[in-house]
Amino acid sequence: MSLRFSVFGVLLIIIGSFLLLKQFHIIELRWDIFLWGLLTIWSGDMYLRGFKKNENGKVFFGTTLFLFALYNLLRSLDFFEVHFHTFVPIIFIILGFSFLMVALTEPRSFVPLIPGFFLSGIGTLLLLEEYGYIDSFDVWNYVRVYWPIALILFGLMLIFRTRK
Q1: Average of per-residue pLDDT values in the chain
Q2: Residue 69 class from Cβ within 10 Å (0-12 exposed, 13-18 middle, 19+ buried)?
């Protein structure tokens, strides 16, 4: 006998429990933390269902939404200090990781790996530059020299996609 449950039912139980604990002044509930937490749970469920059914759209969207919600939840909980100018590199990393998760659902296809590594690499370089681990001149010099690789990879992706 398999255990099946409603995600919506679990969410209602979690919401009700938090609101009850708030009524008794056991916890302090901030709505931003609460909403980001719910979005994290919901999008994580979307990812898992998409992965189970090999639905790339749900895997990509679920992963993107999960990582974005988790990032904002941790930011709301003050786990780390976030500056506005780090938002763009984080988005690149999240999108790259989402493509890599799609590659897990299609192990025989390397097409999602190309944008996955490309976006994650750009995001990582920009984040390292932002925190001072590498010089910004070096980053832009690498981009200026190696940008044609993106065209080559995109062309390969288009060729192999049409051969299917």
Answers
A1: 82
A2: buried
